[in-house]
Amino acid sequence: MRSMTGFAHREHNSDTVHMVLEIKSYNNRYLDLSVTLPGALSVLEPEVRALVGARLSRGRVEVTVRLRELARNPRVRVDSDAVAAYRSALETVRTVAGIPEPVTLADILRFDDVLVVEHERDLDAYRELLLPMLDQAMDDLDTARQTEGQATERDIRNQLERVSVALKIVENVAPQMEASLTENIRTRFAEVVGDQADEARIYTETAVLLVKYSINEELSRMSSHLAGFAESLGLDEPIGKRLDFLCQEINREINTIGSKSFVLDVSRQVVEMKDALENIREQLRNIE
Fold this sequence. Notes:
alpha+beta; Ribosomal Protein S5, domain 2; 3 domains; four-stranded mixed β-sheet; two-stranded antiparallel ribbon; 6 strands
């Protein structure tokens, strides 16, 4: 079992480059991936998305890469057309304004695009640096998510045990419910017609009420759902959606049992099961 919450951090330092990679993940119904790369590495975004998407199935995941180049060999090029255009415009301004001072180099250099700085980067070298770092960070993230997932699994199993214990109590009380129902029908017939009650009619009325109030089918389905839930907890794969579906089915059976119950002990156990199940559903919101 893996949590959807995790964090991973990796750094690379050399004489030429300092790179920092961070991955943060949060709970989310689907996989929502956000990638923030420096402009120099933006062409690698599809590869980053593909690598992360292959490792995760759910969660809000933020991948951030920061890059600082320590040794650069920039090429500085003068944009002659821009220089000529700016000088012409400044001369026109000087003439219109009646300013005697000539246009200076400092005036022209105030415009950013006069000097064009071009960096020569080896994209393949950055790819060979970034992608292995990302793969290692994903291993770290997976370890963090597994660690938190194990703690969550222990809590879910404890809550699941609460449901199982309460269900066992209800199963033990169920025959008493049927016996009590039968006794109540006989008592009512006796109150109305005395010793003249038709035994066949009593059996018929009893059968009708037993069909209406019997919880045997609900108990059987709940036992099956709980067994499937416990089995799924041990799978080494994304199980969050499956467990959420089973919780819905279990909740449906608990509600039906509660609606049919006329015995105080059963009603108490229904409350216990609903409380434990709500705790499980709360935990499942953070399971992949």
